[in-house]
Structure formats: C-alpha cells, structure tokens
TrEMBL record:
It is found in: Cytoplasm. The lineage of its organism: Bacteria, Bacillati, Actinomycetota, Actinomycetes, Pseudonocardiales. It comes from the Bacteria. This is Protein-L-isoaspartate O-methyltransferase. Its main location: cytoplasm. The keyword Cytoplasm applies. Belongs to the methyltransferase superfamily. L-isoaspartyl/D-aspartyl protein methyltransferase family. Keywords: Cytoplasm, Methyltransferase, S-adenosyl-L-methionine, Transferase. Its EC number is 2.1.1.77. It is an enzyme of class 2 (transferase). GO terms for biological process: methylation. GO terms for molecular function: protein-L-isoaspartate (D-aspartate) O-methyltransferase activity. One of its GO terms (cellular component) is cytoplasm.
Length: 376
C-alpha cells in the first residue's frame, strides 16, 4: 500500500483534533504542528513486542500507517539484548510536555534525546529551525533523523553528543526538554540556560522511582514541582560500558510476616514508590512470580545484588511477605507507606525539587519543607 499525501494529512489532522478533544492539547500552534508533521516519515518502521518476548517489525509508513497517527509510543531501536533504546514518544505526552514548557516565539530550545526527530520537527514547525537544538548519544540515530527531517524541509540543529553535557556551543537556552530519564539533573543544563528558563525532565532516582519535573531557573538554583500526571522515559545511556555487578546467590528465607502496604507500588502508588526508593538499595530489581497453573502473576518480588529478596503476594491485604538476605527490603516500603499516609497521601503535584550545583533536595508543598537530600 502506498501512502498518499491525503492519507497522512487526514490522519495527522484527526490526531490534532483528538488530542484537543482529550484535553491534552490547547494551543493552536501545537495543533498546527501536529497536523503538519508526517510522523510516518520520521518513524517508517516500529517494533512491537510479541507474547513470546520477541519483537515484530511494523510498517508504520504503509500497512500500519494508522499507528503513526495514534497516541502510541513507537519503539524504533533495540539493543543487542532486545531492550528498547530509542522510541518516538506518544504524541499525547509529547504535546503535554511542550505545553508545560510554555514555549513562545523566539525561544531557543535544547532537546536531549533526538530519537526519530519527531519532537524536533514539532519544535521546528513552531519556532523555526534555527531555534531548535537537539542531541542524541547515538550518531546513527542523529544522522537518520537529520536526513528524514531534511526530506521534510526541516533543518534543526542536531548533534551526536552525550546530552548530560548539554550543548554549550549554542547556549544559553530558554527551554530544555529531556526525552530520556536521568538519575540526577545535570548542573551543566542549569549553566546553559538563560535567566528565567524552564527545564522539563524525567527524574528517575532508581528502580523507576520518580516522574517528570518542571524546573524554573533561578540565579543560584533550579526549582519546581513534579507534574500531576506520571510519565516514564527510557533511561539516559552513556558511552562507557559499565558491567552490571553479579548478583549474589539468593539467600535463605529469614522471615515471614504480613503487610497492608501495596504489593507493587512501582505500578500502583508511584509517589509512595519514590519515598521507598530513597532508602532502598539502588541496584534493586523488581519482578513477579507466576502461578504455575494460570501463568498469571501471583506475587511481586524485589531482589538486590547482595542476595537479599522479598516476595509479596498480590491481591487483597493483608498480603504475605517472605524475605531473605542481609538487607530487610520490605521494611523500607512499610516505612514509606506510613510516611505517605501520615502526610495525607500526597499526589505528584505536592512533591517538588530544588537542584543546586551540589545537591538535589526533595520537598513537600513548599521548598522550605524538605524531606530528603539526594547525593550527587
Ligand atoms: C524516547 S527516545 C527520544 C524520542 C525523541 N524525542 C523523538 O521525538 O523521537 C530517547 C532518546 O534518548 C537518547 N539518549 C539516551 N541517552 C542519551 C544521552 N546520554 N544523551 C543524549 N541522548 C540520549 C536515546 O538514544 C533515545 O533516542
């Protein structure tokens, strides 16, 4: 099947209307950018995971064209182990982020994570090529995005660089948007922003705990709140190959008790999971065990590389917790559950962050109500 101009233009216009009707999109300038940008030309192929774990290629420029104009994240790049390393972010999230950034004519924007170039294309439509700067760690992705953007008549400034260092050559920026998650906000980003700038990034401190945070540039710090709606991005990678530590053998069971805390807070209570992750080991792995008869998850698991583990039955409280190893993992979740309840179960909008050149300070409601300082 060949894609005609009318096919994709109708679909892109329908996507803009859909995003407006769902309340994700308010600004006509972004609606115009969505309607004018052929996502299928920037994402002609995507991958979808099959029930057996393998990935099937989708023809998003042909038979699967509708997918390119749906609110779907499209995985576009897999590493040698079959893990996704690049994707085109779902358009509803992309426009929510662009609107949160309160972008105006004349703003100079730096994007960390060029990926397919789709977001860079939206930005270039809104601001003009010269105001858009985008970097990606992977030179091949950058070159592909550059060629596809050029075919659309777009030439934003692109570079293959580690985004942790920003792109000082074109600083200062009025807005920085990171489309990969970071364990800490690099202070170099603050140094490359203009006074009054806004930065939007996905802070994930470990084990997927965290959310998007919108930070305002002050003379001595970045400060702002987490966004009300949760989002998760692929983690930032670096050029060095770090060897994952070999996990110790799973230790013998040492205890069993019951819990009223949620069994899988990383999925169901993400604010609580942030609180728990602040003190849990950073090398933690999350998982599930399957009921051998039904092949559906019957328990959530946490494991650490020192051999510590815990196993929590899913379903209604009280849930059974079994634990082993030198680090009592579940008590961190219990403590966080208590703290979260004692504070009225705060949602993301009550959580805030102050970033200075040497600290990340998490606070509740107001910057002077700090509850944790993250080490750099
Ligand atoms: C979700 S994708 C970006 C989506 C992209 N904005 C788009 O519109 O298609 C995340 C991207 O971050 C990139 N990335 C990962 N680590 C990076 C780093 N250290 N510096 C710059 N980019 C990085 C990945 O290569 C990947 O392309």
């Amino acid at each position: 099947m060949t894609t005609t101009q009318t096919d994709w233009a109708d679909l892109a216009a329908a996507l803009a209307d859909h995003l407006t009707s769902t309340g994700d999109l308010h600004d006509p300038a972004w609606a115009a950018a969505i309607a004018a940008t052929p996502r299928h030309q920037l994402v002609p192929t995507a991958y979808r995971q099959q029930p057996d774990g393998t990935w099937a290629a989708l023809d998003t420029a042909g038979a699967d064209l509708n997918l390119a104009y749906s609110t779907t994240t499209l995985v576009t790049e897999l590493d040698d182990t079959g893990q996704p390393v690049s994707s085109s972010t779902k358009p509803d999230l992309m426009v929510r982020m662009l609107e949160l950034l309160d972008i105006h004519d004349g703003h100079r924007v730096l994007e960390i994570g060029t990926g397919t170039g789709y977001n860079a294309a939206l930005l270039a439509h809104r601001l003009g090529d010269d105001h858009v700067h985008s970097v990606d760690l992977d030179p091949a992705l950058v070159e592909t995005a550059r060629a596809r953007l050029a075919a659309l008549g777009r030439q934003p400034r692109l570079a293959a660089r580690d985004g942790a260092d920003g792109w000082p050559k074109h600083a200062p920026y009025d807005r920085i948007i990171a489309t990969c998650s970071v364990p800490r906000i690099p202070w170099t980003w603050a140094e490359q922003t203009a006074p009054g700038a806004l930065l939007l990034a996905d802070l994930k401190i470990g084990s997927g705990a965290g959310n998007l945070v919108l930070l305002h540039r002050h003379p001595d710090r970045l400060e702002g709140r987490f966004t009300g709606r949760w989002a998760g991005f692929l983690p930032m990678r670096h050029d060095t190959t770090t060897q994952a530590p070999n996990p110790s053998a799973r230790a013998e069971q040492v205890g069993e008790h019951t819990t009223t805390a949620p069994a899988e807070p990383w999925n169901t209570h993400r604010e609580l999971w942030l609180l728990a992750a602040l003190t849990l080991p950073s090398d933690l792995r999350r998982g599930y065990t399957l009921n051998p008869d039904t092949r559906t998850p019957d328990a959530a698991t946490l494991t650490a590389t020192d051999g510590s583990w815990c196993h929590i039955t899913l379903g209604d409280a009280p849930r059974r917790v079994r634990e082993g190893g030198p680090t009592p993992l579940w008590e961190h979740v219990e403590t966080a559950w208590q703290v979260w309840n004692d504070n009225g179960r705060p949602g993301w909008e009550r959580f805030g962050l102050t970033v200075t050149s040497d600290a990340h300070i998490l606070w509740l409601d107001r910057p002077d109500n700090a509850f944790h300082t993250l080490s750099r």
